Amino acid sequence: MARRRTRAQEPAEADPVEEQPPVQETPADNHDDDMADGDDDEDQEQHSLVFNEELSWRPAKPIPSATLLARLERLSKELADFDQGCVQLDSLKTVAAQLAHRNLLQHKDRGVKAYTACCLVDLLRLYVPDAPFTDDQLKMMFTLFVKEILPALHDPSNPYDSQHKYVLMSLTEVKSILLICDIHGADDLLLRLFNSAFDGVSTSSKASPDEQVAKDVEIHLTEMLLHLIEESPGSVPASVIDAIISQFLRAAPPGGNKSKEANGKQSTLLHKTEPPAYIMAKNICNGCADKMSRYVSQYFSDVILNASGFATKNGYGQGGDDSDEEDANAGPSEADLKSLRQAHSLIRELWRAAPTILQNVVPQLDAELSADNVHLRHIATEAFGDMISGIGAAGPPPPPALDPAAYPPLRLMDEPVASPEANVLTTPFSPLSFAQTHHATYRNFVSRKNDKSGTIRATWVTAAGHIISTSAGGIGLSREDETELVRGLVDKLSDSEEKVRLAAVKAIELFQFRDVILKLGATGGVDKEGSLFASLADRCRDRKASVRVDAMVLLGKLWAVGAADIEDGQEAVTACLGGVPSRIINSFYANDSDLNVLLDRVMFECLVPLKFPLVKGKSGKGNSNKNTMSQAEQDSIRAERILLMLKALDQPAQKAFFAMQARQPQFAKGVGILIQQCEAYNGGVIDSNDDKVKASLAKTIDWIGRFFPDGLKVRGDLQKFAKLNERRSYQLVKYAIESESDFKTVRRAISELITKLQSSNAAVALDTIIPLLYRSSSLMFNRSHLATIMDFSKSDKNGLAAVAHLVLNDISQRNPDLFKAHSEELRKEIIEQAPSESKSNDPSVVDILKAYASYAKKYPKDVNLDRSFAQTLTNYAMYGTPPKAAKFAINIMLAKEDDKSKVTATNLLRKTMQDLAWGKPHFLNKLATICQLERLAPSVTVDEGDAIQDLTLKSILRQVHTDAKPGQDPSWVDDAEMDDEIQAKCLALRILVNQTIASQNEADAETRAKTVFKLLKTFVVNEGEFCKVKDTPQHHKKRLRLLAGLLMLKLCTIKKYDDQLDPVTFNKLAELVQDSEVQVRRRFMEKLQSYLTHSKLRARFLTMLFLVAFEPAAEVKSRVETWLRSRALYYAEAKKEVMESIIGRLIPLLAHHPDYSAGVDDLADFANYFLFYLNAVATETNLGLISKYAERTKQTRDAINPDASENLYVLSDLAQTIIRKFQDKRNWSFRVYPGKVGLATGLFAPLPSSVVAEEIAKKQYIPDALDEKLDGLLRSFERKKKRKSMHELGEPSAKRSRTQIKTVIREKAAPKPKVKKAKKVKAVKPKKRRESPAGEPGERRRSSRVTKTSDYKERDDKDDEDEMLDGVAEWKYGDDDSSDDESDEEAESGEESGAEEEEEAEVEEEEEQQPPAKNGRRTQTAKPAIKASVLAGARRGGRSKRSSRGDDMDTDE
Questions:
Q1: Rounded Cα distance, 609 and 62, in Å
Q2: Are 105 and 113 in contact (CB under 8 A)?
């Protein structure tokens, strides 16, 4: 009894301040509130128990249950009325003995047991601190309480529920429950008590509201258990601690949190609120944190030690593991990992619920962060990341949804809206700042970002994403800590391992849009090198597909979500995401078919999704909704999004974008043919021509497969689609690809087709069909968008007019069919805006004119050229603003090519020639009119030929009206800033060239062409200067030089004129590639590439592009190099040895280069040209042929200047040396080309004799001192190439002036840092024959394998071309419409409508590889329409009336 007495007094002595006072000290406070405060205990009246009925019975004579129940009820009421200290304890001894008897404690009636328990707890209350029971009696009593009374509380429907509550409250308030600790075998009772409490409230919470346990019961149960932990005399049993801790696992999802990935399908299985048992355990842990921290520390010490024992089994972990593979071999069993993960999951949840009890556990986990075993480090890193983020056992919240199609769009400044399905268990919450509470451990965690294991780094970057996105569980991060984590996230985006980069991308997906901008945007926008967004954009071209897919999709979604803020000019969003479309679309230049498929999907699923605008809360069928928009409104919003995206693109991205749109008509044609052939195939049941139909289908499928990464899969997918033979599917594809389908029709057709295929056995074919539909359907430039685009071109709303003009221009050139549905609107707009002599038009109407002109050219019969409209067009030609309006007005006027239009044109010319002089009103309009009439209706202008020629040459080109200001004039001005004089001179040159083109079928055409070439060459050679008496301003000269070069290229698209371009003029024209003005170089090369892509120029013009080797503008050089590689690949696939033969033209071009010198340093410079050529063209298989051409040039003389033939020999030896060194550097095997090769007779002449040939062959023309420089040059070249492959852009090359011709001069290769002497500027002179500068001529290093006798007899140029271009399709010369003229003008003026063709060539050669037609043959290219000029010439028998005054053109020699 002494032991119990001591125990009973402990609560009074050890009561903490915040707890209620012990009941035995102040009984009046609990049972007699109205008693006077001044009354003393001795003054209180002592009561005796009145109850004296029998409660016990003899064996075999039990008291009836009803009688016994009534007696116990009366006793209970009497005992309950007694206050502590106010009753004579002796009067209670009898009932105490009877109540503690086994008969009552183990009675079968639950009511008897309930009232017995009530009486017993009252006795315990009244007898405090000395309980009048033996140990056995106490054990039976508490067994009754624990096993029957307290568990019955969880059933509120129990008739004795009030008695059960009374027992609970008494045990809790009086703390009588503490007596359970004195009982023998108390551990089992305690464990049962805790488990019963936890399980009871948990089970009850799942019942109906009427059957759930009342909150007061939960509160008292929690308080009772708290007393047992806090005031336990000894240590609490480990099993009880286990029971408490395990309650925190109730927060975990069913089956455990096996994966960190959220599973939306199982979200309904998760608890939405904290379970009651979880709350009880949390309150217990927080209520006695000091004691629980000791118990928890010991608990996890045992659990973690047992679970992590694998780390030291069999010596594992004793040495550092160098790889994940080694750790995997030495790793734990699945059971070990499961146990360890469960322990760390508990720790995560405990940090959320009661972080103070983990103060001794965190150091244990800290040790795991530095463990040798990778599994331990991985689990610890993951656990700490979740703890800092406030993520518990339930796992992280689902990532936020970025819906790019949602409308109205999200705004940065909108208040965050709480999700209605928010789950408190998955909502990150951290009661304390981990970084401050456990600073050393936090620093150790941060250091894991540099772990040697990629698995750990990937885990860390995911954790960092959670920490930043949750603001460390809502508690907040210091600015320094947040910056450090964001910088770590940036670094991991460029990690060497794929899984780390992928984890970094996925970590960004964890952020709300607002946090992406405000938190991650702190490092800078997508255009700032080193920022998070720039690093993420770099991943769009990652070498691993999984990384680039996630990165590009995420970037696309971010831009689409922020598009509304970007449109409104929100600074933060614009700074972060404004350049995203450019970075995405510029991946087009990678020329990777897999990347192009991804780009198509991102374009139409993220940037401008097919479903955009998807109105939130859109109503179903038959329902009305105030948010529902009309189809026209939706089309307008979508068109505005397209223009906004286009506005965000830089110039290269714009070209790529238009190149992508240019594919659409071609792919639509190909897919249309595919559908026709699928219909003929009829699922394999073919009526006739079985083999022909199958071959045609296979050929078309192969053509389509060329544009996809896996041609075999494409073939299989499309074969399945064809075998499906679903006629509705065929019709849906037709709807999608027709240019006349509106956007709603296209979108619904694609959606229905996808749904049909998903439910068929051809579902796998969607991987091919969806990207194919994206490329072939009229999605971006749809007829539904045109009205909005035209409105923006006129109103300039949101600054989108410029891009709207670009779109209209592109549609005019690429796909004028789109204007068919809007032709009347275009006509009406043209008439309304018509100018007059006193009234000017809106400049934006030029785009409308151009659009209608393209439509009129395609559908001339649909154009109504009545008198009123003809007058309107005449007004545009005479008075339109800007002057190029005249061009499009005349195009429309002459679209029908009938006599009526010729009469209109004649009347227009008559008006134009009146008062035609410099300085007169509308002078530029008149010149533009003459220029276009010369092109389209030369028969109209023939009578005015002399006057026009005098005007252009004498009154315009020879005169200078603007004073030159040396040193002050800019070298270039933008197109919009061109003054009237330079515009007039440009038009004058075009007039002369158009005259020449129009007269190509006349007898004196070649003579006229020679004179025009001579004129144009003068502008090229003299740097654009043509006036003999006055200097021309610098920016005028640059414009004229560029235009002269472009017009020479244009003339060369006509075969007979190309023959007139002599090699000397060709070499001078090539110097434009190295002009001092970057705009001249860029625009000239872009036009040259465009002509070559469309096979409008001979292959010899490819030679010019290799002079770009010293291009200082890295972007320009890179694009040309990419284009050259693309052409080399194309010719190689077509089995055409075109690019290899170019070195036979490159050597003489360099031999006559104005910078050529035989000095060692200069030759080392010139070696860069050959390196550039080899890098773009050479492969192991064609290197022998290249070497053969280089060797062949040494077996001839220079046909241009025989005295300078030594230059050829020097460069031939230099080229062969570079080829050998290049081969050695690549470790390629050299294969001697066995055949013969020919050279152009215009460039080379035969040697006089075999003796001379042998002498030249034996002589080595390059000095020995050059060898070391070439080795250094190759090393430097390889280093630059390696840096380039790592996406490190180098600085532009430096310039140095060498000659009076302002060419782009090259930076010297310097393998060693040396101080070089300045070189003297040399004048351009013919080189004299001289001996090798190395002194005695050495023996040329010849291949012993070459034993064939060379034939030195030269063939004519025709034979040479035949051999060079053997197998090449017939070249196309002279496009017999005005498109060339238009594209030339635009290339010169900066609009460059066709400049994207070089990018297009990287993907396909559309004109040369067309889809097969229905009959199985390749579709034939349509013959160009015969122009009015040709018809007119045929009618009058030639242009005899025009004065052939070409010889009178006063040009400078």
A1: 85
A2: yes
Rounded-to-integer distance, Cα 1163 and Cα 1217, Å = 12
Cα(998)–Cα(162) distance, rounded to whole angstroms? 112
Tokens of 872: 């309107």
Distances (CA, A) of 574 to 376, 526, 608, 1314: 43, 10, 18, 47
Q: Which two tokens stand for residue 1383?
A: 């594209």
**Would you state the pLDDT for residue 730?**
93
Closest CA to 822 of 813, 811, 814: 811
Give one DSSP letter per residue of 998-1021, joined into a string.
Answer: HTTTSTTHHHHHHHHHHHHHHHHH
3-class secondary-structure state, position 85: coil
| Identity of the residue numbered 1 | M
Which amino acid appears at position 1232 of this protein?
A: V
What distance in Å separates the CA atoms of residue 1074 and residue 1106, rounded to the nearest whole number? 11
Q: How many Å separate Cα 1401 from the centre of its chain? A: 23
Q: How far apart are CA 1104 and CA 1089, in angstroms?
A: 10
In angstroms, how far is CA 859 from the centroid of its own chain? Answer: 40
Per DSSP, what are the bridge partners of residue 407?
A: 615
Cα dihedral: 973, 977, 981, 985 (round 10): 60
Instruction: Judge whether residue 537 has pLDDT over 80.
Output: yes
For residue 1338, the cross-strand partners are 1260
Return the ∠ at Cα 576 (arms to 571 and 579), rounded to 5°.
105
C-beta separation of 442 from 388 below 8 A: yes
Count Cβ atoms within 10 A of the Cβ of residue 255 and give its class: 0-12 exposed, 13-18 middle, 19 or more buried. Answer: exposed
Q: How does 144-154 read in b/e, with b if 16+ C-beta sit within 10 Å?
A: bbbebbbbbbb
DSSP letter at 61 equals -
Cβ neighbourhood burial of 909 (10 Å; 0-12, 13-18, 19+):
buried
By the 10 Å C-beta count (0-12 exposed, 13-18 middle, 19+ buried), 186 is classed as buried
Helix, strand and coil content of the chain, in percent to the nearest 5, comes to 65, 0, 35
Measured CA to CA, the distance from residue 1097 to residue 1099 in angstroms comes to 7
pLDDT (tens digit, 9 = 90+) per residue, 1383-1395? Answer: 555 545 444 434 3
Mind giving me the DSSP string for 415-457? PPPPPTT--TTTS---SS-HHHHTHHHHHHHHHGGG-SSHHHH
- DSSP assignment of 1308-1375, as one string? PP-SS---PPPPPP----PPPP---TTSSPEEP---TT--SPP--PPPPHHHHHHHHTTTPPPPP---
Q: Which two tokens stand for residue 186?
A: 């108390």
If we measure between CA atoms, which residue out of 983, 991, 1040, 985 comes closest to residue 1016?
1040
CA–CA gap between residue 1025 and residue 1015 (Å, rounded) = 11
Question: Which H or E element spans position 1260?
Answer: strand 1259-1260
Q: Which residue has the tokens 């080899």?
A: 1174
Token couple for 1400: 């297009």
Confidence of residue 156 (pLDDT cuts 50, 70, 90): confident
Tokens 């518990």 belong to 392
Q: Decide if 1262 contacts 1163 (C-beta within 8 A).
A: yes
Residue 807 has pLDDT above 70, yes or no: yes
Helix (H, G, I), strand (E, B) or coil at 1242: coil
2 token code pair = 């002494």
Residue 589 pLDDT more than 90? no
Distance between CA atoms of residues 728 and 206, nearest Å: 52
Q: What pTM value is reported for the model?
A: 0.75
Mean pLDDT along residues 214-219 = 86
